[in-house]
Structures are given as C-alpha cells and as structure tokens.
Amino acid sequence: MSTWQEIENKCLSCKSCRLCEKRKNVVFGVGNRQAKVMFIGEGPGEQEDIQGEPFVGKAGQLLDKMLYAVDLDRHKNVYITNIVKCRPPMNRDPQEDEQESCIGYLREQTRLIRPRIIVTLGRIAGMKLIKPDLRITREHGTIIERKGVFMMPMLHPAALLRNQSQMEGAFNDFLILREKIKEVCPEVYGL
Fold this sequence. Notes:
With about 190 residues, this protein is an alpha/beta fold. The chain contains eight helices and six strands, in the order αββααβαβααββαα. It has one domain: 3-Layer(aba) Sandwich (Uracil-DNA Glycosylase, subunit E), CATH 3.40.470.
C-alpha cells in the first residue's frame, strides 16, 4: 500500500508517456485528501501546467463559483484532480495511451480518498470512468451507483464558457449534487 507522499513523488517524476516532454508542472491534485466528494477532469490546461494545480484558469474560476454556490470549496471539503496529470499539447483531448499511462495514479488517489461521490467533468472523464458511450450533453446530471460509490457526469466548465446556453443545466447539476451529498455523506457540509 502506497502513501499519498509516495504516489505524489512517483507522479512528479513520471516519464511514462510523451506528455512529460513539454510539461512545466505535473498537476497532481488539490483539496481535502479525506474528502467524500471527488471531482475528476480530463487533463490540465495551460494555466494548470504553469501553476501546478487543477482548474485554475477561467474554467477553474467558473468551477469555484459553482462549488461555492452549493457550499463546496476546493480547499475544504472536496478533492479535485484529472485523469492525466500533464498538459496535452494545445489542450487537445488526452489520447487513450496517455490516459492508460496515468490512470494508476488516479486509482491510487481514489483508493486513498475512498470518496462516496465522484463527479466527472466533461466527456473524456465521463467516458473513461463511467461508461465508454456516455453522451455528456444528454446524460450530465444523472447519478449511477457502482460498488457503493455514486458517479455523476457533469459538463466541463470550459465547455460552459464556450456555450453559455448550457449554464442553467450545469447549475441544476450542482443542485442535484448538493442533495446527493446531503443524502449519502452529509458530513461534507460539517467540514
């Protein structure tokens, strides 16, 4: 069994795929490492690569506002990470082999956190973690249970910035999430 520090150290020095070649920083994750709610995106963008923290650009600022609206906070009661820990060139989708090179780190993070709820942000994360044929525009906000963990796909904040007409539906997803938290792990709001 690995510890947080062992996993993070291994990840920070990883050279398992081509994404390591141009990275500035490995973007491991941020938040409460005992959180019962885990948000998982697809991969870091430019600002995340520069700062070494997930979701810190414009999309991250939107995510923070939506979290705040339902009494969640990236530093207090959730944990945020990505499938791949290095930025894909030009913010392209992480390729399957890159995802496979990195998925072990995510599995270890998930094993250590033992979340009750996993929220996937965007199509790529939803397809990788929930189901390969996920239709994010149709299925966002739905909740499935897998081995005692509730999984919920949501629209990626960057997609919402590009298509503001989806903002109301995305906010409703956060309201659904808040109710599910109150139902299965109300202690999240006591942190």
